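Dig into these lines:

——
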Amino acid sequence: MTDAAASAVTPKPTARTPRLARQIMGEAGIGIALVALTLVFAITADDFATTQNLRNIMTQITLNAILAVGMTFVILVGGIDLSVGSVLALCAVVAGTVMTESGLPTSVAILLALLASVAIGAACGLVNGAVTERWKVPSFIITLGMLYVARGAAQEFTDAKTIYDLPQQFNDFGTLTILWIPAVFWVALILAVIGWFVLTRTVFGRLVYATGDNEEAVRLSGHRTGVIKVLAFVIAGFTVGIAALTYMARLNIASPILGQGYELNAIAAVVIGGASLSGGRGSMIGTFLGACLLGVLTNGLLLLGVSDFQRLMITGGVIMIAVVVDAYRRRFAERIS
């Protein structure tokens, strides 16, 4: 596989102006919305702009941002993964069991737990992708099945019990700050940067975009689109394993019922970030900003005293508005291209 071959199947803008317009209306658009929302809450909500609350927001954003990084790859190839919340629970209980019951030295147990978590997440992603491609079944159905399988496996594995008393060395990471920023947020940021690099600076990333945009063209050019799609699901599963460890470090528990609804939050972050559910369009920067926007929105509404039910309605409304705005943005981009 050569860089030239990948470039041959990757749509390229024909002029500088359309490319700049898409960039301004993409990442810059969601960035402006995030800044505006932050300013509104800083003015209207007491304690929103405090140092402690800003750290809280970063911590709250972390989990969804990590899941959204993996979800971006899946959505870019035209798929969807509804199982990430349940797989997160399965990864967490297995990792928690390794830490608390393996009898190994603490550092070794933590390392094995990390490997077990990401391995299980990647394995579930592999099953999702492989079954979807082998039998040409919509990923929506396959991952819905995995949602139930993983949730049931997590509850069976622990007899529906929550795991406590995780090693203190592991728990300390959940409260650690590096350069004023929570360590767990650095994990999300680093994963987002890696995801951005893969999508924008590698042949595989170009093929991910091209597969979602025109799968037949990629196949006719000699590339195996099925492998690309399966790898996208594996990447999503890998990030779920990382997210599970982050969750455990933050709350010091591993529960078989955690992660319910997390898949919808991750999808929302990707969509708000400008990705198309039909595949081929989106960006890691947009996804990360989308996750930040959702985190700021939730935190600000909470400080304003908005009830849980009202927060759900407002968040849903924001997602619908984002989809409508994205539709107009896409039409405008096509008009000026």
